[in-house]
Amino acid sequence: GVVFVHGPMDRGAAGLIEKFRNPDFNVAAFVRDATGQGQEKLAKLTQQLEDCASNVDQELQREIIACHEELLQNAGSVNDLDSQLGDVREVVEALKGSIAHVRGDILSPFSTVRQRVELLERMQAVNVLIRKLLRFLFDARKLRTQMEAPTKDFSKAAHTLHELETVLAEGSLNRIDKLRAELAWIIETGARVRKQAKEDLRSGTKQGNQMAVSVALQVLFNLKCLWPELKRMLAEMLEEFANAALSAGLSFQQSMDVNLQILATQMQKIHALDELLRSKVDPLTHRGFAAALEEEGVQSLVKYYWMEATAVLKVKLSKLGQDRSARRALLADFPRYLALFNEALDKINLAGRGQQVLRGAEREALHNTVADLRNEYLGESIRRITEPVEMMLPERLLNLVATSGERMGSSASVGDSVTDELPTAHDVRRYMQLLVAELERNECCPDSLLKEVARSVRSSVLLFATRLEQVVDSNCLEVRLFEDEENLRLKSSLPMPSAGHARNARLFGIAHHALVALKETVPARFQASVLTQQVQSTLQQTLDLVVLPLVGSLKRALQAAALRLSLHAEEQNLENSP
User: Fold this and answer.
1) pTM to 2 decimals?
2) Are strands 489-490 and 482-484 parallel, antiparallel or unpaired?
3) 50 to each of 22, 26, 41, 44, 532, how far by Cα in Å?
């Protein structure tokens, strides 16, 4: 308990007691301060401490005397506590005996077994290391034999080298000092074999030496680095293609020829490499070399390189097309440049010896490099073959017909003005010549351009026929000469042809000239794609719109006249009969 001092003491001793009661009392600081006050103050402090100790001892004795009865009462339970402690000692002794029994029967044998297991593990590790070492030394001797032979077989040496490098990668033999020289020689030999295989692969691919390429592929396959090395070589070829200049201006075609020549040559070499790669099978594992590429997601070297090369070509053309003058030059001769692409594709396919090297997907990838230019060119082509229609039959003329109400009868001056603005036969023939010129311009690209242009030509002709029909005066399609058509009673004054009739006759002639010009002007090779059934029926529909109502009225008049003559002949026969 806490000691309270109630006896008489001086102020210094009381102050010391208060310091000792403070929870933050620091003994080291107290001693440091006391020793630093000088000899006299230190002696006085010592006397105060002795007085405090004496007073505290006296107070403690008084407290013990005051609590004597309570202490005697608590001492009565000491015997009970002693008996309980005796029981605890017996339980503890029994527990100690059980633990000793467990240690003797279980833990000691377990410790022995564990030591033996550790020893066995160490023996097994040593055994494995010795076996590995023996195998390593055997392979090392075999590698030396293979490398020192007069005719080196690098493919077998590569197989042995890969086994040695696999052991070295585990790191268990690096700590053996006796093997350091052997390890250095193996590392040097691996570098030399790899370097030779890389050189043979590149030179053999470049020169078309199938034997050198075959050996290099076998070496790289045995070293498990076939695809990484092929990818590195393709990257070098791609860099060569990317570095080929593609300049604008007059030298564009020449530079494009150079780029496509490089691409075609590279593709022929890669196709030969790809064919060789697919034909090779490892004689030891009976695993195809192509499987090593398929594991990396590469189905074909040709497809892989073609996609990469077309992406590079697209970037080069995009940079070139950023210049407006260069872009205009590209659009002006776009069919010719696209024909160069097709020629390069055909040249590459010739290397397949009857097999198609580049299929539809690869052709589409090449054409996608100029997709923006192609779309822009086709837009210009549509404009060139549509502008003549806009000039011969402009919107202004159609609006004039629609707003003047000529379909419900209009003045002769308006009708004459419309007729005067209609195209002539020369205009129609010139229009057909422009269509043929557009077809011939794109004839060099039958699949990529000519089909689209032929479709645009058909649309232009249909637009021309549709606008002709819109200008037809439907109020002047027939000539009414009879007051009573059934009785063939003519009008007292026969009507004169109006401006609407003249315009319709002019439109009939235009449609007829257009149909004839199409058949005569369009070459036979374009007839099937341009002069389709839809085009002919649309132009014929325009002709029928003008002439059929007039022919119909004349037909009805002739039929009525024939009927009247037949009836008159019957009456005459009846009168002359007896």
Assistant:
1) 0.63
2) antiparallel
3) 20, 20, 14, 10, 134
